[in-house]
Amino acid sequence: MRLSSTAAALATCCVSAHAFSDSSPFILLSTTGLEQPANQAQIQSSRDVSASAQKLLSGCPTERYLIVSQPNLNANDLSAKDAVPNLRRALEKAQTRYTVAEVAGELNLKEVSAHIKTSCEGVVQPFIDELELAPLPSTNVARTLKENDEEFGMVLEQYEREGSYTIIYTGGSRKETPQTYNAEFPGAVHEELKRDLHLIQQRAKNNTQGLPLFEKYQYFTPGIFTALVAASILISILYVGLLGVASLEVPYGAFDKEMGPAAQKKQQ
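Above: the chain's sequence. Below: its structure in token form.
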């Protein structure tokens, strides 16, 4: 009967495994019998889950508490039967199991830890241990999850030897951004083409390094050629004009004063 309830607890975490890619499961187990929260929905906000967990722990049920943070954990990661054997073993021995498959938002574990200290104040000195496991990568998740479960198992053995305990197992903060679909539009394609053109120009600029001067730079362009042709025509016209002016011949007598009878008659 206990094995079937353990399987059901983990199966509940995997019911909506594909609902949200950025959510994480929440598992609370205790060797002490506790009253189950009224909210048993498998898709809850982090605020609701935190309130339910604090209500469960308000009576300081045990002396030892282990808060396990598994970054990038998704409910689908727990679906395999041999994914987390030590976590399954802990669920089998627990008297209380409270699981939520999809927790939207990051659960504030520091706040839960502070609530435990406040609840146990004047009753018992609680021992709270926080275990942060290695983040799950985007590929080969099963291997990393298995290694992290072995690390969790070593701590669990110590807790089992010392008596009653309560464990909170959650996804913690995400260390990687979940993969999302990015639509491509004509504007984005245009920007990509501009970026490629810039890279080609930059590459062509780098290829000119170390070349001779007349191979690196272009000194004769169509604009320069047009300017030289126009200048040659204008200079030719100026040259012909100067030659025409210079070829004019005027006798020196044209500038002498007339002294003959005709000039005297003009003076009279």
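The longest helix spans residues 222-246.
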